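Progress narrative, work stream C.
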Amino acid sequence: MPYHPPLIPRAKTRGRLAVGALVAALFGQLLAGTAAAAPEADRTPSAGRIAWKPCESAPGQGKFECATIKVPVDWKRPHGATVDLALARHLATDPARRIGSLLVNPGGPGGSGMDFALAAPDAFSPALLARFDIVGFDPRGVGRSTPVKCDGDRVTAQGALLYPDSARSLNALRAANRALGKSCRDLTGPLADHMDTGSVVRDMDAIRAGLGEKRISYYGVSYGTAIGQQYAERYPHRIRAMTLDSNMDHSLSDWAFQKTETDSVEASYGQFADWCARTPSCALHGRDARALFDSLHKRAETGELVLPGDPPRKVTPQDLQDVALSNMYDPAGWFDFAQALAELDATDPAAARSLRRFGEPTEFPFFPVMCQDYDFTVPSYRTLARYERELNRRAPVTRFSTLGWTVQTGCQDWPSEVSNPQRRLRVDGTPPILMTNSRFDPATPYSWGSNAARQIGREAVLLTYDGVGHGDYWLSPCARTAIDTYLTTLKTPSKGTHCPAVWPTAPSAQRQSPSGDLVNPLPDLVGTGAYRRTS
């Protein structure tokens, strides 16, 4: 049963439980190099204007064009081997009032920017669709841009070892990580060792040049904020406007990373529990949702939490933690999540129907990116065990963030160089940058956004969404209006602006955004294909 880092699965329909959720959700790394890049010190090689051709999106709405552009595999050798990047753009619906190109990235690492652009008619407001060509690209090693491929058996072996419980099992994980990374290199070639975000930023500037624009506008969410932050650092004068939604903080040590991730998941689940307590239609109304999760976790620890089936399926503690994490991404799924927890507690056979096998992996960009951008090396199992004890103390309900934990364990002894280790941002000379973060974001904690804004300094304007979730544009009408206004007029909200929380009021079969008639595209863009795990 091959393992894949899951990206935003959630509870599905009533009576179904998405067990085993998110190891690698919507975020990535920041900033290239071990030292700050000199702003605009390099010249991006130009391959000429991009040659666009008409293409269509699956929904069949809007006018689209697609293209490819060649960039160096290794930007230190600009005239060496190249890789083709795939692009798509939705043409502005009001050409007479067109502002320019709005480059977009949906996160990951592993999300398809090309599909993000193809989803533009459903995902973005009419105001943005009218004034901008929405341009998305699959980052190097992702989707249609020469995807990184790794050995499926090695992926499986690593997945079984991501939660070591002894020095011996940590050593086994280190060996599995080395073998997996080597297989990625063997099956993909040199590109597997050049997946860092610094290279992606250089790619994006080549796209800017190919578009023939001196300055670009940009919207990035989660991992997309990593790309945007570093682009602002390297190319401050090539930005017209930039919105960074659900921000990374690449200055964190391994312990600070673990601690903030865990604190955020615990606080987010607490918001869910409080919502259930005051919402009569929640399946757990009248029950203590915190105590229920604790009870389920203890049953899983002792092997007593079993779902019926042929054969029966034991639910692990990590399954439960995964499911809690994934369902904090968007409160729209909370009615189903509450029902799923209630049925799991009762061992309802209906819950077992969602436990389906996952298929053979081919594309696997997550760890090749993360392990080149983060140095999370731990000296021994004793360090990991100490981390786990302290995280359990900080988060007595959810215990720790499976996302944060597996990013660290999955990168132990990864064979590629850590070419983009953690450091503080150094941004100077950009126009105002609009940054947004929710107060209860399970993947990119609010502390990350506020700290990244402090690092950027006077150029940053941080807008706070006081609710739960990841991807404020689709969670908050207030945030969406502020983003649209800024991107079209360059007018930022006042510093210190807060948007009120939006709570679910009824179950919804679709991911309908509270921001008008938009549909949140993130689960489909970074939660499908080779990246989904549901067992």
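Work stream C, second folded protein:
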Amino acid sequence: MGRPNTAILAVFFLAMIALFGGVTLFKGGVFIEKHEGDAYQLIEMVLRVADGQRPHLDFMTPIGFLALAPISAFVALGFGIGKSFVLAQIAVAFVLSVLALRVAVSRLDGVWSFLFGLIVVVLCTALVHGEADRAVSISMHYNRWAWALSYIVIALAMLEPLRDRAPVLDGVILGAGMAALALTKVTYFVAFFPPVVLALLMRRQWRMILAAIIAGVAVGAAVTALVGMEFWYAYLDDLIAVTQSEARQRPGADLSSTITAPAYLGASFLLLGAVVALRQSRQEVPGLLLLLLAPGFVYVTYQNFGNDPQWLYFVAMLMFALRPRTELRNGLGWDMRAVMLVIGVAVLSHGAPSALNLVYSPFRHFFLAEDDFGSLLPRAGLSDDLHAREIRLYRTDGNVPLDRTGTGLDAWKEEADRPPAAELKGEELADCELMVGMTAWFTAASRDLDAAGFAGARLFAADVFNSYPLFGDFPFLQGGAPWYYGGLSGYDNADYVIVPLCPIAPDVRANVLETLTERGETLEEVRRTPLYILLRKMAS
């Protein structure tokens, strides 16, 4: 394998963007099959930003501005939310493919340069967050974007240029890339900043370090000039609130499980094997850097929903690309070219279900039959190009305990160790969890509120989502949280508290009501229906 042709690489990258992005765009809309609640959260944040609101200052979220801005920009231009999402993915893929082209041309050979670009494009344009569940989803798109950008940043820092040395250019890309990670999802910045800095120091890349610092500071200064220093304080407050939240400290398995659980243990051993193989191939610096990256890989996996180890594709590519060019044997007499090939194949095999799901998702989406889909946003004027399966939109199913008094099952209530029932002004609320049918629930509740004369009211929800403005004539709550992370964000700007009788997240309802009681808030019940209780805030 030899020097990749820049023009051919660029055409290939563009062709992949046209293929993966185009097949989604030509569908005419987005048809999701799961994670409707996550979609509501994303839609609210996108609409707020498109309307000129600022994350962290005007609403609470730990998600960074760059996770929303590309989609909001297309919404502001008049596109529907579905098309805006697809166009944003294409735009992000184009920008990151330009950066990936620099990595491919300067640090990789032959087929691996093409593979690197393909991975970046797929991560940007997929229609599922990962794992092996084929159902289409727009949820957690920012995790994919952040992985793609992380691949570029890590490769620039970790791999010695094979040709076309340009430390200033590489430093600018790296510094701006790290800043972009901080403004997309800070988890990636925290995880990869230390090993990236150590990589540059170990390689004595002083010009690259200086250029990276200047670029990173320039991005920070530009953001500060646009939104003020208070933006950073608010962002930090939101991040601290999430880390201290009992409701959302982690979205999946605990930290130890993401290392030692059966689904991850093999990959953990292979990662250590990759480190050893690199060092025995006389590539001590990449081997040490991969070892330093391991905690960051695990931490990001732990923090992401689904705990999908999407660092596997990078490690596999590293094993293939860094194989010794000539025969080299370790102390046991093993051919290290063969050893690294075997490890690379094994790593790729562990990541294959998720990788294939990402690659396949736009094409599966294209061939979805549209007859059994309905509008995710039935409110007129919002968007007509974002759809979900009707059975998930309108079949309302709840999860209720069967061990009620008199059933005979209540004899084991103590052993069942259920959390205590949520209480509202001394009244125990029924234990119920809404499992599916959020669109129907929000639509019915919003229509009832409107008919009862509460249109225009500022609502604070005792539940994980406060999505009423997407379904009725209710303003977005200033300072509110599209997804509940703890506390009472936006409560002081609300007129009413709405308490679902079958919430999406019963633990959140209990937490909100307990916090209101602890604060000594005075609430007057003004309406009760089979769906909700509405409480007016009273002056203390």
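Residues 398-537 form one domain. No further action is required on this item.
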